[in-house]
Amino acid sequence: MKGKRFYVDTLLKETLKKEDKVHLPSDPMFYENMQTNIMAAIQHTEIETQGSDQNIKWSKPWVFLEPGINLEEGSIKLHSNKKSPL
Amino acid sequence: MGSEIDRRMSGEMKTDLQIVDDVRNGDRSSYSELVKRHQKGLLRLSMRFMKDTDLAQDIVQEAFIKAYEKLNLFEARATFKSWLFQIAVNVARNKLRENKYHFTDINDIEIGVEATADKGLISNALGDVLQKEVDKLPFKQKTALVLRVYEDLSFAEIAEIMQCPYDTAKANYRHALLKLKSVFQSRVDLQTWGVDTTATMGPMSTKFAEAE
Questions:
Q1: Are residues B178 and B206 in the same domain?
Q2: For residue B157, is pLDDT > 90?
Q3: Does residue B44 carry a pLDDT above 70?
Q4: For chain B, what is the domain count?
Q5: Is A53 at the interface with chain B, CB within 8 A?
Q6: pTM beyond cutoff 0.90
Q7: Spatial CB neighbours of B155, under 8 Å, sequence gap ≥ 6
């Protein structure tokens, strides 16, 4: 039973490979152009420094817990980005 | 692997890791060599998901740019190729989600195979049917199948690319294979195929011997 399963699996994989519909462009110019385009884009790209995302996004997540901040209404200038409907 | 070490020893050709280090140290132009080495493989992988050369080319370009941006995150636990494949698979998945590309033509009519048809015709029809079934697979199952069958990668490499445990990668592959097998078995009379396929079974048997 296991032998038959292996046989069918192998036959299936062989058929999938044989009937592969993906055909890559054969023209070397195609790949040269692609390489040129990618390198042109790379010229305007910088390698990100490690952890830069975190520093920008989460620089002060717990600002409301910092000591010394007076939590009385209106005493700290915390504003929402949303525009007032008024 | 051995030849890569030999080349490294003789100074003939730099390895991917050496080039990555060069790029990290500011030699931007060295990245061109990495693009040259891997663009074809990446295009082939992308075309399995996008079915269109232009769209696949976009995936390749985006993957290379993302890889460059995140080069400092590459830890060399896996090969650079595996890491690139991982990025390309993620980009392809996002593109498919965003644009909801549908590649199945509803007007496609399933090709009927008559009992008198020759083997070539049977083979072509079977190929079409199997391809349609592959396209219907969920993304993770299709990814595992593509990487295993067409790219000849090990389950460890597939797990690395799919960012999942080894067993999950293997399970995804098995599920994909099971779905295809039900279609495959209903279409093929194994007895008649046995004679022709035993010749090709030799190399395949050893190749796929890895605990499937």
A1: yes
A2: yes
A3: yes
A4: 2
A5: no
A6: no
A7: B148, B166, B169, B170, B173, B210, B211
Identity of residue B208 = F
CA distances from B90 to A51, A65, B122, B153, B161 (A): 21, 38, 36, 18, 9
Q: Indicate if B27 and B66 belong to the same structural domain.
A: yes
Query: Looking at the structure, do residues B75 and B55 belong to the same domain, yes or no?
Result: yes
B64 plus B127 within the same structural domain: no
Q: Are residues B112 and B140 in the same domain?
A: yes
- At B122-151, the pLDDT tens digits run 555 778 888 889 999 999 999 999 999 999
Q: Which CATH number does the domain housing residue B21 bear?
A: 1.10.1740.10
Of the three residues B101, B128, B147, the one that is the final residue of a domain is B101
The pLDDT assigned to B141 comes to: 95
Domain edge (last residue) among B77, B101, B125: B101
Q: Is B36 on the interface with A (CB under 8 A)?
A: yes
Q: Is A64 on the interface with B (CB under 8 A)?
A: no
B131 vs A contacts (CB less than 8 Å): 19, 21
Using CA atoms, how far apart are residues A27 and A15, in angstroms rounded to an integer? 27
d(CA A57, nearest CA chain B) in Å: 17
Q: Which two tokens stand for residue B172?
A: 């995804």
> Which of A51-60, B21-30, B82-91, B107-116 is predicted least confidently?
B107-116
Q: Do B193 and A11 count as a contact with CB atoms less than 8 A apart?
A: yes
| Same domain flag for B42 and B85 | yes
Cα torsion angle, B5, A36, A30, B42, sign: positive
Q: Which domain does B155 fall in, by range?
A: 104-212
Q: Over 70: is that where the pLDDT of A71 sits?
A: no
Flag whether the ipTM exceeds 0.95. Answer: no
Quote the minimal CA–CA distance from B20 to chain A in Å. Answer: 12
Give, rounded to a whole angstrom, the gap between the first and last alpha carbons of chain A: 75
